[in-house]
Design brief:
The complex is a heterodimer of chains A (114) and B (112). Chain A is mainly β and 114 residues long. Helix content of chain A is 0%, strand content 49%. Chain A is globular and about 40 Å long. Classes of the chains: A mainly beta (114), B mainly beta (112).
Chain lengths: 114, 112
């Protein structure tokens, strides 16, 4: 199993550009998450999904959109990139909710907006 | 909302020495996770604690959740260079499906 994979690993965007961060998991997990990690800070939840077709906002959803058309994929869309979105983005998945099941993390996408 | 405070923020330890990292929550913990992150990489799961008083060990790393379920500690015995990295605690606030709340992390450096 590859686990959780993310593409791209690095990206530089200009202000106002858009892009999609890809996330795929091959563990047949129902729950998927997007976090961002700013320097010196913990991870903050952007969006999460409990299954195909179901998504919900996390703590910092503004400026982002998600979709979940399949169990495996959970892409994160950035519209009109801003410097404040410069961060490292992590995708994670788990079998079920966080109370009993660990989250498996991807390697991250390092995004710079200039 | 739940907040997690980790201490210390950074730690420099001589190889072979023991160390402890703490994670204190502003609310009762329903699930407490410890992850390790190597610089520039993703998070690696270490342990999960759920019950007050619970203690788990993996190789030379031991984690405990106190009886009141508002604080956890991570103890490393006889530290090695491979232990270097960022240690993050993450908590489930009991809210259901949404993700974990994380502390800011503890940077651990092992000096040879």
């Amino acid at each position: 199993n590859a686990g959780v994979t993310q593409t791209p690993k690095f990206r530089i965007l200009k202000i106002g550009q858009s892009m999609t961060l890809q996330c795929t998991q091959d563990m047949n997990h129902n729950y998927m998450y997007w976090y961002r990690q700013d320097p010196g800070m913990g991870l903050k939840l952007i969006y999460y999904s409990v299954g195909a077709g179901i998504t919900d906002k996390g703590e910092v959803p503004n400026g982002y959109n998600v979709s979940r058309s399949t169990t495996e994929d959970f892409p994160l869309r950035l519209e009109l990139a801003a410097p404040s979105q410069t961060s490292v983005y992590f995708c994670a998945s788990s079998r079920q909710g966080p109370t009993y099941y660990e989250q498996y993390f991807g390697p991250g996408t390092r995004l710079t907006v200039t | 909302s739940q907040e997690l405070e980790q201490s210390p923020q950074s730690l420099i330890v001589q190889e072979g020495k023991n160390l402890t990292i703490n994670c204190t929550s502003s609310k009762t913990l329903y699930g407490l996770y410890w992850y390790k992150q190597k610089y520039g990489e993703g998070l690696i799961f270490l342990m999960m604690l759920q019950k007050g008083g619970e203690e788990k060990s993996h190789e030379k790393i031991t984690a405990k959740l106190d009886e009141k379920k508002q604080q956890s500690s991570l103890h490393i015995t006889a530290s090695q260079p491979s232990h270097a990295g960022i240690y993050l605690c993450g908590a489930d606030s009991g809210g259901g499906a949404d993700g974990l709340t994380f502390g800011k992390g503890t940077h651990l450096i092992i000096q040879p």
